[in-house]
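Hello Y.,

Per our agreement to keep a running log of every chain we model this quarter, I'm adding this entry. I've kept the format consistent with earlier entries: sequence first, then predicted structure.
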Amino acid sequence: MPIAKSMQGIAGQTITSSQGNLRVVQGEVMQGTHVLSYGGGVNTSALMVLLVQKKMPFDVAVFADTVAELPETYSYLKVARDYLDKNGVELKVVRSKTGSLYDTCKRRGVVPSKIWRWSTRDYKITPIHAFYRSLGTQIIEYLGIAYDEIERMKPSREHYITSKFPLVDFKMTREDCIKVIKEADLPIPVKSGCFFCPFQDIPRWRELYVKHNDLFLKAMELEESSKHFPKQRLNAHTLRGLMENQFPDGRQPRTLSDVPCGAYCMA
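Predicted structure for the entry above:
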């Protein structure tokens, strides 16, 4: 499907964040392709609804698939695609040329790093930016940063991308995002991210263990086969230690949607 190029913009303010003053450009004409960087989580799902409801320039949404997302995220992609199709917007799914993140980790004998964030770079940012360049236009990129996480705002380093933060513009918190999704009669998505994400806390690992035991065991196998194990792990504890010492008690885990999500990797 050809992607139309929008010729209008949205109203403006200067936000102070840990990255310095960021000009959120509104109220001026911006030529290019308006793209939602869709993460499959609460923030970007609410932003998807807002872009449609407020009739803001919105040409295409893009989701980077690591081929290792949670089953709930793949199910929600169908929800998002149906919603966007009804409103004349394409949802484009892109992937790394190297294939599955899990297979790459297994082949290299490593796990994703919380410090270097190479998995986010190679499996989220790189394929999304490759898609942007294929469009051959200036990209106006909508990012799902909520008003209560302004410190995470930062401008794009790429000259062909202009970052915009509508949730901040409208002073919408994560709770506001949940309300928007509910009022649109859509289900609340889980926090997105690969099933072996090292940023998961113990309750989230517990829920993976309970709901998707096969994926938990795959994550544990990956952790233990890493050439850096046990120095580098997917949690402060080893996953085997969590399974043997904390998970057999049968306590009900909290839902995966309880944890905030981010911009590129978990949004």
